[in-house]
Amino acid sequence: MEKGKQIYEGKAKILYETDSPDYLIQYFKDDATAFNAKKRGTIQDKGIFNNKISTKIFEYLEAEGIPTHYEKTLNDREMLVKRVEIVPIEVIIRNVAAGSLCRLLKLEEGLKLSEPILDFCYKKDELDDPLVSEYHVRALGWATDEEIQEIKKYTFKVNELMTKFFLAVNLDLIDFKLEFGRFKGKIILADEMSPDTCRLWEVGTGKKMDKDRFRRDMGNVEEAYQEVLSRVSK
Fold first, then answer.
1. Which backbone phi and psi does 68 adopt, to 5 degrees?
2. Is residue 86 very low, low, confident or very high in pLDDT (cuts 50, 70, 90)?
């Protein structure tokens, strides 16, 4: 499809129109942000890594019955995606205590949770993506109750599938963020799945293989992203 005008630029991606009203081209940038864009930088070739990692994961999830916005990969940095109306919430699944959960509840990082925790956050950087409940989502008209139930069903299924997927390449899925959108009246998975949106720790060593290396100035960020791509490509 022909690439048209730019219609959106976010922290990690740019969206372009195509000659079809139903599809967009999603371009992955090397820009890196953390703490709701309070920290900014660049991770060399991050866009290439995340495009390829997301491709592998979306193809796997589609094969397992999860509807996504992914259509096909166009080149190293671009994929063709369905044009969705994004639901303005981030859905977070936590399998192990890390990040904001530890800060909020004073938990020790690495605490294994007895069951996954699902959180909703309002997608608003200037408000630091505050936690919200299903009541907020319904009352403010962000999603219907039926859509909320669909989102929750898909999220728990993605967690089940991706936990197995990453474990097979010696990575523990600690937590991750999902975004959903509406396409022709149906809720589908959108955005990306990559070390930008997933916390991944190496099994046995606990080595961080995700954007925490950038957040915490741990170094070897590019190497970690490259290693994740190498593992999921096998």
1. -130, 170
2. very high
